[in-house]
Amino acid sequence: MTTAQAEVSGIFISQQRHTPMLPLTETEIIADWGLKDDRKARAGSKRQVLLVDEATLQSVELQPGELNENLTIRGLDVNTLQPGQYVRIGDALLEVTGPCTVCGELENVRSGLKEELRDRRGMLTRVLATGTVRLGDALTVEEPK
Questions:
Q1: What is the mean pLDDT of residues 23-40?
Q2: Which structural domains are found in the chain, ordered by start?
Q3: How far apart (Å, rounded) are the C-alpha atoms in residues 139 and 119?
Q4: Is the pLDDT at 39 greater than 90, yes or no?
Q5: How far apart, in whole angstroms, are the C-alpha atoms of residue 138 and residue 135?
């Protein structure tokens, strides 16, 4: 499935717990790790990179990064991705592992947000191939070979 209109509109890492996400213009996505210098990156994890789409953020009146996503995506409803699909951004290759579940932490952002985001909290991925990601990079969705 080609999604030529889909692009990276935000890149974020977390350096310390309970602090805002740090916006970047580019970074390296590291195989079996996550985003370089992200405190949540872990080898062997199925939660290495969180994708959230702009439309979801806009629908709940949040700014990119406020849901602690690593990559904000424009032009693709990431909640329609299926486990096992691949997401390619330049040389980086991510495998969709499943939806990010809503949790009580969302209530710290805004009361009622947990319910507002039910079934559209974003998609978790693991990194299969290292690559640099930049704001504006195209994103394509591929079926496993």
A1: 97
A2: 7-142 (2.40.33.20)
A3: 22
A4: yes
A5: 9
Please choose, from the candidates 37, 36, 33, 31, the residue with its C-alpha nearest in 3D space to the C-alpha of residue 45.
33
Report residue 32 as tokens. Answer: 């079996």
Q: What letter represents residue 66's amino acid?
A: E
Residue 74's pLDDT is what? 97
CA distance 38 to 21: 10
Distance separating alpha carbons of residues 41 and 94, to the nearest angstrom: 14
Distance CA 144, CA 3 (A): 16
Contacts of 51 (CB under 8 A, 6+ apart): 69, 70, 71, 73, 78, 81, 87, 94, 122, 123, 124, 125
pLDDT digits (tens, 9 = 90+) for 65-123: 999 999 999 999 999 999 999 999 999 999 999 999 888 778 888 889 889 899 899 99
